[in-house]
Amino acid sequence: MFLQSQRLWESYHPAARPAQRPLPEDDLARLLENTIAAARRAAPGAELSLVEVRMQGERPRGDLLLAGRNSRELSFDARSGEALVEAAPAGINLGDFMLRRHRGDILGLSGYWISLLCGVALFTLGVTGLMLYAKVFLQRLRSGRRSLVW
Predict the structure, then answer these.
(1) pTM for the full model?
(2) Would you state the CATH architecture of domain 13-89?
(3) What is the pLDDT of residues 6-30, one digit of tens each?
(4) DSSP-based three-state secondary structure for 94
């Protein structure tokens, strides 16, 4: 419940993000070429589906999505061509789908609300169930029956 309420709060009250540095325009073509060349070295013969160059802190980062059956994401330092991250294969897998479904991500903001309400309902049912059981158990004690269950 806490995570859902925190996520809802953040969606309505986004935190101030630090100012992003712009990409150096005079180096933009070279950064893009370095990123594509690094991808060609890492995955020769693979087709590119997406190429993105952006600033990450002080360094430009190039992210690529390889196309085809064995698609995956690659990330490089756009200046040096050094590999930063090789992510798991792109696409939908069952574990990610189930996690997104569990958290309510699939339905967006309304999914967070539904998930939060379900969590509150489950908590409320548990507390009221214990309260009712305690009431019945105390009545049983007064009548002389000492067993925990009927």
Answers:
(1) 0.48
(2) Roll (3.10)
(3) 777 777 777 766 667 788 788 889 9
(4) helix
